[in-house]
Amino acid sequence: MTHEITTEELEIGEAAEIFPGVVVERRCFLRTATIAFGSLAIPGLATAQLARPGDARLSYEEFLKEVIPVAKRLVSDTSLTGQHRYLLTLASYAVRLADVPVPQMRDSGQGAGTGTFIGANPGGDPFIVLHWRMEPGTVIRAHPHTYGNVMTLGLEGEIRVENFEMVGVRDFEAKGTFKVRKTQSQVLTPGQVNLVNLERGYIHGFQASARGGRGLDITTRIREKRETPYLNLSKRPVEIEPGVYEASWGT
Amino acid sequence: MKNIIETIEDSKREIAPGFFETRRRMLLLPMLALPVALGRAGNALANQLSQEGSMTGPVPNDTGLLDWESFIKQCVPVAERLHKDSSASGQEAYLHWLASMIARTRTSNIPKAKLGRFGKLQPQVSFGVSYRGTPFFIVEWELEPGAFLPPHCHPNASVCTAGLEGEARIRNFEIIGQAPEFSSRQSFLVRETHDEIIGRGRINTLSSKRDNIHTFQAGRIGARGIDISTYHGPDVGFSFLDISGKPKDSEGRIFEAAWKGQSV
User: Fold this and answer.
1) CA–CA separation, A94 vs A87, rounded Å?
2) Quick check: A57 and B60 CB within 8 A?
3) Spatial CB neighbours of B141, under 8 Å, sequence gap ≥ 6
4) ipTM
5) Is pLDDT above 90 for B20?
């Protein structure tokens, strides 16, 4: 459910509206680099920070302070395995997050109707932190991630997240129908994560429960930005056991 | 009440009095053994085949990954520290750390267990303990094509399941409300919380606080993988469950269930 942002295009300190009502600011590299190089200089420090004693929850600021140096170190490996490691490492920090301040939000523009909202929390680098909320019963339409991977974290309520992959070679410009496979259907509750690797489970859609839900999409752009279509999905699988559906791209 | 390891090892001895069976790998998953035998060329071929024809998607390239010794050396010290926090978020941090480490480990380098057939399941399911350490131990599993490992719980434990070969469907459930004791045959409700594909480079986790019941259904080519298991509380045994085929509440994915003991 992410609108990915090209923070690289911003000047340091420059803010941009990446979504109606959603403003991001590019932070000073030198400040975060100091932290990053500091941790690189001491082998094991990054992982040592991970191992906090007791049931210690991280504030949002603590989370950023701890995870950014590690994320910067891992983000350059954009292979399937590299992304997997990167996303799982982000997750190992994010699951310790206490609640995160709710930013100003606007309609997500990705809902099947009204009642889905999105905003951004400041400070992410190399990722951005999008904050979403879904009213009870609302739907975020399934869509592929073609240039930014995502670690989704549940903060409140309950959402069903489904991930799909195209069968055979990926083609985000395919005309007509093709087959997709549902690779995951998950109930996302507070403290749980769902991962979108650009090589695995790269199409996702959300269905809010009767309680609605709220969470974060920590999104990292690793490829050239491109237009993102929506996935039109057949109601029933064409092959039940492997969970294969007929689908097409739409707008 | 036996624990998982005791049950696995008993299963190896149960075949016949005084008769030990060691399952051979030669005939199982021959298509999947080919890339290993052919090394990198095989991996490249498997990658290409995956991209072009199969539904498994791309598979990880083993280049530049940790060997087993490095995995243990780097993973265990942090795992030991994280393991001290058995809260829900502590287990999540622990599991995702393990997952991030096993994701970057060369799968061909993970110690192979001596596998034994588990119970009387047909098609066969085999298990073996491939690593015993602190704080975790590793159980290797192998499912023949179409094999089904019935749902079972892991009380007070977390499990990080990593696929190595082939493909299986893995489903997780959580108990709704209070379940009766393992000895009871009284029914209770469970909710399906995960339904996903596990295969090479794919990971599924459960903790003592969530998704604690899981079940495996192998695909057409069978599957092999490992469970990295950790106790976060006392070992109180485990039980298999019968879960109804049809949900009681299809929208909520709620099913009726009953304990069925440790035999399958």
Assistant:
1) 10
2) no
3) B125, B126, B127, B149, B216, B224, B225, B226, B227
4) 0.81
5) no
